Amino acid sequence: MRKQVFGRRFKRDKNERKALFSGLISSMIIKGRIETTEEKAKAIKSEIEKLVTKAKKGNKKLLIKNLNPFERERMLNEIAPTFANRSGGYTRIIKTGKRLSDNASMAIIEWTEEIDQVKNEKLKIKNGKADKNTKASGKKSSKSVLKAVKKVKDAKKTSVGKGKSK
Fold first, then answer.
1. Which residue of 46, 77, 102, 158 is most buried, as measured by CB atoms within 10 A?
2. Can you name the residues that pair with 92 across neighbouring β-strands?
3. Angstrom distance (rounded) from CA 159 to CA 148
4. Domain count along the chain
């Protein structure tokens, strides 16, 4: 029996489910792509899309409840502007096969468009074209951009470097 619980339960109580989903959503925002079970990917897809829609509207109050400050800034400054012309379908789920240990269906959930503001900032700094007025214009300083680029690189290495079974 369903016992009036909406969504997938994953044999967890309410707090465990909430922690699981918030961790997966945080990883998705920071890394841009994560590999998880197909069922978990389907469960968080709608929540991620709702957060992107809230960020596109600029509703910071609703994002404060769900995201930490770093994730909130990334969502508002990089992810939401990327999807400004899109009305939905911000993520995609790619099935990768079965996991060897327990035969669970694995999938990769990622953004449908490339989030490239960090790449553009990195190229500007690499070429020596960083703006002198970054602090005055309210943009990130070059040191903070470099830190963000390193975090994204490390995240991509960990998510892409894992072996995939077919």
1. 77
2. 110
3. 16
4. 1
